[in-house]
Design a protein that fits this description.
four-stranded parallel sheet; five-stranded mixed sheet; single chain
């Protein structure tokens, strides 16, 4: 059977995130889902796989169920498929941040950059005054990236703020466009740059996965594969699985 994979996140105030852990685990276990979900005061971030009906039931629970009480009314959600179950077990984890940057001023619930739909991304990054930055780690960038994008050379996303402090200047870099796998790292990165005084910051809505899903390969500026943090390892255009050897993650 083919498995349905849901990747989702939302920055939202969840002061009761510790109390949400066990009820969410029980819901996912009852649906026989596997994967990983992170819960923090700032929101939720997860990738879960299972049967199609079970995934759809989980999505309805997250959006409309009593557990989150309507607080996840605008979460970013992407579906893909896997020929085999891409996760070994179910993990619901409590974290300080759903994506770790370590900058208290970077709060996507207060301010983020300008979202760019995949259909408009090519025109933005082709503009000569746009600095395009890949916010992912060096291993991910080596597998694939957008033509002409800057590789910050980081081992983990937490190092992005050091790259920005050393290499980026609000007076010089007037228009910045960033991207990542699913969009979540760019929300944090854009909040960080805005807090540092950068005026015009854009990020790819839904990330590389949304771009590969919706932009025809003949029009694509993407080169290579997109690393995903599960047993599928990499996805290509149309979110098709690509068999490759495993590498390190963040």
């Amino acid at each position: 059977m083919a498995y349905k994979v849901a990747a989702f996140y939302q920055f939202a105030a969840l002061p009761d995130f510790r109390e949400l852990r066990e009820p969410l685990r029980a819901i996912c276990a009852a649906l026989e889902l596997k994967g990983s979900v992170l819960l923090a005061n700032e929101g939720i971030n997860g990738t879960i796989a299972g049967g199609e009906d079970a995934i759809d039931d989980l999505v309805r629970e997250l959006r409309d169920g009593a557990l989150f009480g309507g607080r996840l009314d605008n979460f970013e959600l992407k579906f893909s498929t896997a020929a085999a179950m891409p996760f070994q077990r179910l993990k619901i984890r409590l974290k300080k941040e759903i994506v770790t940057l370590g900058d208290p001023a970077a709060d996507p619930t207060r301010q983020v950059g300008i979202y760019v739909d995949p259909a408009d991304w090519n025109a933005l990054i082709a503009a000569p005054d746009t600095l395009v930055i890949d916010t992912r780690n060096a291993f991910e960038v080596a597998m694939g990236t957008f033509a002409g994008a800057v590789d910050p050379g980081i081992r983990s996303f937490g190092q992005f703020k050091d790259f920005a402090a050393q290499q980026l200047d609000p007076a010089k870099h007037r228009r910045i466009a960033m991207f990542c796998t699913g969009g979540i790292r760019c929300e944090k990165a854009s909040a960080h740059l805005l807090a540092r005084g950068f005026a015009e910051v854009y990020h790819l809505k839904g990330g590389i996965l949304r771009y590969l899903e919706g932009v025809p390969e003949t029009e694509s500026r993407w080169r290579g594969e997109c690393f995903v943090f599960d047993d599928r390892v990499a996805l290509g255009h149309g979110l098709r699985e690509r068999a490759m050897e495993h590498g390190s993650d963040e």
